[in-house]
Amino acid sequence: MKVLAYTSPARGHLTPMMGPLLELHRRGAEVHVRTLAASVASVRAAGLAAAPISPRIEAVVHDDHEARVQLTSGARSFATLRRRAKHEVPDLEAALEEVGPDVVLVDSTTFGAKALAEREGLRWAVSQPSLIEEAAADGTPFGLGVRPLGAPLGPLRDRALGILAAGFDRRSRLPANNAGRRAAGLPPLAHAAEFRHRAPLTIYYTATPFDYPRKLPASVVMVGPSLWDPAPETAVELPAGERPLVLVGCSSEFQDDGAIAAAALAGLRDRYRVVVTTAGVDPADLGDPGDALVARFLPHVPILRQADVVVCHGGMGITQKALAFGVPVCVVPWGRDQLDVAAHVVEADAGTRVGRRRLSPTRLATAVDQALTCRAGAAGIKAGFEATGGVATAADRLEALAA
User: How much is the pLDDT for 310?
Assistant: First the structure.
């Protein structure tokens, strides 16, 4: 069996794919990956064939971190994805011609690639690394960072916010989808509901109780998060001592969230051993780290095996990876879907939340202390992830699709 995986230029969208892809490779499949140029070497080191996506796609960079309002940030993000779509179609066409796959796994944010897969009638699946962008079963809307609220106020709130969310779908999500369809020569869609669940299979990297209960079609299969890390260049030597260990992670895609790392270094080092991965933030901008370990990238899995709590921006990758180890999290949501991720963490009693505009070393330290009391909630999410069958379930469904 030949498998072709196609990602956006985001490490956080490649990482979830790697678990199922490596499982398929272990079972004897020939796996090819098209991803951001900076990650090609790490994918090859893991044993898979890899090549970069078109540089035209990587040249269209996100600027949503410059927005000060959540809806404006979201609109900017989808505008970026819309501009990339026209480049994805010829790029994936070339990859299909070269590989001749039996099944294609396509990143949920590559609207041109998804449209091409639909046009060609491929056996294709969507890789869904973020929360599904529709209301939960009880009507709790997506994208606004709200938790479920019972009657009588909940239904009233959800109807009002649902109108707001529907407007965002019309103005931002639907145009991005239609940009991909136009590039692939498909007719545009008229309504937001039409672009959901068009693939024969969606690999959804989460599970309850982290996700809210949802009415999902049979094509959507929950598999929990992927735990793959790129191979480290050297062994990680953690700070010594008996203090609890906190891992602080900034976004793997630049979102200008270095203030989280700075607040952690200022507020936590007296009571915690601190490890910081800055990713898109220059560690030099954070000043003297003292006895903390600070690096752009470190493998998270060996750190999480010893960590007591994680502080992060609320990206699905690092948040769920921490919870997969039963480690509670303190989320400082910075933008995109991170307000929703934070709400899900708090609703599951698996951690705490600090608002971006209220972030300070003192408030962060208090929230981290409180997160340490949320081990039971984190353990419940860990059990939910494990119950899905994980990468084995994902590989089974992809094999069945290919057959």
Answer: 98
The highest-confidence range among 53-57, 278-282, 312-316, by mean pLDDT, is 53-57
Report whether pLDDT(232) > 80.
no
The residue among 379, 326, 334 whose CA lies nearest residue 353 is 334
The β-bridge relationship of strands 245-249 and 273-277 is parallel
Q: Specify whether the CB–CB gap between 323 and 329 falls below 8 A.
A: yes
**What residues contact 345, with CB distance under 8 A and at least 6 apart?**
210, 314, 319, 323, 329, 331, 351, 352, 353
pTM for this predicted structure: 0.94
3-class secondary-structure state, position 240? coil
- Helices 390-402 and 11-26 pack at an angle, to 10 degrees, of 70
Nearest 5°: CA angle at 228, between 369 and 25? 160
pLDDT attached to residue 195? 92
Prior bond to 55 cis, omega within 30?
Answer: no
Residue ranges of domains in the chain: 2-224+388-402, 245-385
Predicted confidence band of residue 41 (pLDDT cuts 50, 70, 90): very high
- CATH architecture entry for 245-385: 3-Layer(aba) Sandwich (3.40)
pLDDT in tens, 330-366: 999 987 789 999 999 999 999 999 998 899 999 999 9
Residue 222 dihedral angles phi and psi, to the nearest 5°? -80, 130
Four-residue CA torsion sign, 310, 314, 318, 324: positive
DSSP string, 291-344: TSEEES---HHHHHTT-SEEEE---HHHHHHHHHTT--EEE---STTHHHHHHH
Strand 245-249 vs strand 309-312: parallel, antiparallel, or unpaired?
Answer: parallel
3-state SS assignment for residue 32: strand
Asked if residue 327 lies in contact with residue 308, where contact means CB atoms within 8 angstroms, the answer is: yes
Cβ pair 341, 331 in contact under 8 A: yes
Instruction: Tell me which amino acid residue 165 is.
Output: A
Determine whether 53 is exposed, middle or buried from the number of CB atoms within 10 Å of its CB (0-12, 13-18, 19+).
buried
For residue 274 the two structure tokens come to 């601190």
The answer to whether domain 2-224+388-402 has CATH 3.40.50.2000 is yes
What is the Cα–Cα distance from 304 to 326, expressed in whole angstroms? 9
Token pair for residue 280? 């898109």
